[in-house]
Amino acid sequence: MKINLANIKKAKKLLNKTECVAIPTETVYGLAGNAYSDIACKKIYKLKKRPKNNPLIIHYFNFRSLEKDCDFNTDFLKLYKKFCPGPITFVLNLKKNSKVSKIATNKKSSLAVRFPKHSISRRLLKELDFPLAAPSANLSSRLSAVCSNDVRDEFGKNIKYILDGGKSKIGVESTIVDLRKKPRILRLGGLEISSIENILNKKVKLKNKPKKISVPGQLKLHYSPGMPIRLNVKKNKDNEAFLLIKKTKKTKTNYYFLSKKGDLKEAARNLYSTLRKIKKSKFNSIAVTKIPNIGLGKTINDRLKRASKF
Ligand code: TXA
Ligand code: MG
């Protein structure tokens, strides 16, 4: 996507004044603000109606810009080298003298950090003197946004500016890996666990169903289009939207396809936009076919399962 410098300048100006701006990333759009500013971080929570105890992911241009805020370890450096910028978020130990707002961290001793790949946001991050706190640009517990129109749908006039970067290429959030001790996956996402395991040369456990909920992102209802969802459906009803993994020969007006031929990357990319389309349709409930629980299918199933706790 071509970079429009005037737009980046506008976003920069607002961010310098502790305002919030929506930014494009390769996963989903983010609602960004100066991560070093309490005022900016408070605005993010307010706009999103996000519970105050749910910390924010901080976005950096590169590991040099992160050095002041976090301690690195070898697992981090290996994964950074292979996958960054890209759809992976690291949970690391926060440095005592870090400038990241305590509002953003909820006074935790850890920090979730990410290096987004989208060229527009990279350019913006390069220009700024601070990293960006940026949770997904949607109202708390709702569907994430994958284009500027989606962000507008969520926030209307309450958002000062949306930096347009087209449709997010990956379409689901980043994979979160906690690297403070033995690596653990806290959230399935756009990067497959097996890719992470291959680089670290060890098995990495999934720990996204904690006994005690430590961060609200692990709450059950999330990513919700605001209507009931039935999963693993073989026989759908005509009065509900039917979400299928691939195109069928015969189609009906209530059929919605995630991909042409069942490609799981394509399906992940289309997941939120298709759910949003259904939300705007005449249908009030959704039935979903079985989605293969492999690769990005695991992420799709995770999102649909949480969205179905309506
Ligand atoms: O792809 C993404 O990660 C997108 C784009 C915009 O970068 N961002 C995103 O942010 O998905 P959000 O806030 O919707 O989800 C971040 C998750 C939340 O569930 C939050 O609880 C968790 O990260 N989180 C934040 N700080 C954490 C920490 N210190 N330890 C563990 N989890 C943390
Ligand atoms: Mg989110």
What does this structure look like?
By secondary structure, the protein is α/β, with parallel strands linked by helices. It has two domains: 5-206, DHBP synthase; 229-307, no CATH class. Helices cover 31% and strands 15% of the residues. The protein contains ten helices and 14 strands. The strands form two sheets. Strands 7-1-2-6-3-5-4-8-9-10 form a ten-stranded mixed beta sheet, sandwiched between helices. The longest helix is centred in the last third of the chain and has 17 residues, at 264-280. The chain is globular and about 60 Å long. The protein starts with a helix and ends with a helix. The model has no long low-confidence stretch (mean pLDDT 95).
Key words describing this protein structure:
310 residues, alpha/beta, DHBP synthase, ten-stranded mixed sheet, four-stranded parallel sheet, 14 strands, 31% helix, globular, binds threonylcarbamoyladenylate, binds magnesium ion
Approximate strand percentage = 15-25%
Order of helices and strands: HEEHEHHEHEHEHEEEHEEEEHEH
The name CATH uses for the topology of the largest domain is: DHBP synthase
The overall pLDDT average reads 95
CATH top level label of the largest domain:
Alpha Beta
Structural class: alpha/beta
Side-by-side strand order of the widest sheet: 7-1-2-6-3-5-4-8-9-10
Per DSSP, the total helix count is: 10
